Amino acid sequence: MTSSAGSSYTLIPRQKYRRSSRRSCASLDTDSPALSALGHFQTLPLEIFQMVLNYLSVKDISTLSMVSKTISSRLINYIPTSSGTRRLLLQDFHTLELPGRKEGASILEHYKSLGLLLKRCTLLLPTRDRLKYVHRVLAEVSCFKLSGCARPLQCLGLQCYGVFLQVLTAGWDELECHRVFNFLWELSNLARKVQAVVSSKPGSARRLELRIRLFCRSVLLNPRLQRSDSAFWLTRILKPWPMVNQARLLYIIFGPVSSLDGHVVWQKMIEGPTDETSLKGLADAIKLLYGTEAREWTADDVISLVDELSVVPQEWLMENNARLLLLSGNSICFTFLASKAVNGRAVELARLMVFMALVCEKDLYCMDWAVKMLQKVCKVFSTPWERNNFLLCLENTFAHLLMDMLQAVLAGEHDEEDSSFPNLFHLVNAQANFHKEILYMAMRNNSSTT
Question: F-box domain: which residues (predicted)?
Fold first, then answer.
């Protein structure tokens, strides 16, 4: 066909033109498989892509990382950059007085989200490579290190590190968690530092004891963990050491501390009766190791650990031993007492039972609990003579202890700090209530048989 201007051209059929247009558009969208995985982000330069990330929350970036392997790779490259660390590694750990405040909860939530982001980004990497990458990202945060912060008691760094690791390792199998522990153990040089504190005189390395306590409690034994996870990490901490060192380390991590400087108070169990607050951490740890979650611990292991703990750093007051057993629960308490009965340690067993009655009186527990425990222990003895000998030791212990306390009252100056009279008062009431419950039990048994 010729135009009026004399030039000629060929008309393209409409159907063919439409098909060729679709093929042309498709070729623009799929230049390469790698770029197509970026979706609309493929048109953005890398610098602009990273600028876009600054407008997304950590949770949104975490969701974005699951879109494709290509985006995940870009995020892996972005996170360790100076721009990425400024954006993601918040370090205002010291502006908060208490973790319970809104700001404290906010920064903990931030590192929880960051843990999920790195978990998703490194999903396809082997465990060893994931740990190396995470270390490369977090290496510049000094407050995440065992001795990296000058004010550890006013710092949320280790707690943030703990929630980060908790999210990162959630769902990992036991072998992978072993690798995590070994990695952290070597990275922090914990073996050498723990060896230093458990082999030296208690309190001679107070700052190191405090650092180890905070690191283990905040990072490895995060209170947000499930019992099975806590049992796993506590086992990893204790098992490499002999029993005597396990007891020392358990006291460092869970024992009482000073309210002034946070340092471990080694003389607390020796100088006088203590309260439930000072013993609760130790009791909870013992219950954890004795429970079904701690598969690597036998009942004998836990009994030996409790026995060893009662002489750290020196022999405890018997009242503190009794209070720890009560707080540890019925099962561990009975197992511990039964082991004394089986091994013929009747005098020691009698003293423990008397002080358990005293603790029940002081701390307002039901005295029938102590009497029922006595009844169960009596069934452990193999002969009537052994049982009767134990009961005789029990009554003699009550009598001797009453005389000792009475002498202390008569010899005391009775100033405001003198506790001899209140102790005598509690012991007299404990003995009366203890025997009253025994009489009630005897009368009930007589009534049921007649």
Answer: 38-88
pLDDT score, position 100: 46
Low-confidence ranges of the chain (pLDDT < 50): 1-31, 97-101
- With vertex at residue 152, the alpha carbon angle to CA 146 and CA 154, rounded to the nearest 5 degrees, is 155
Supply the pTM of this predicted model: 0.86
Predicted confidence (pLDDT) per residue in 13-41, tens digit: 444 434 443 443 333 344 455 555 666 66
Helices (H), 312-413: 318-328, 330-342, 346-362, 367-378, 384-411
Q: Where are the beta strands (DSSP E) in 86-233?
A: none
Tokens representing 79 are: 């996170």
> Alpha-carbon distance 342 to 95, whole Å?
56
Are residues 437 and 367 in contact, defined by beta-carbon separation less than 8 angstroms? yes
Closest CA to 198 of 253, 249, 238: 249
Tokens of 317: 């007051």
Identity (one letter) of the amino acid at 302? V
Is residue 219 within 8 Å of 162, Cβ to Cβ? Answer: yes
Q: Rounded to an integer, what distance in angstroms lies between the CA atom of residue 208 and that of residue 192?
A: 11
Closest CA relative to residue 87, chosen from 110, 65, 66: 110
Assess whether the previous peptide bond of 313 is cis (omega < 30° from 0): yes
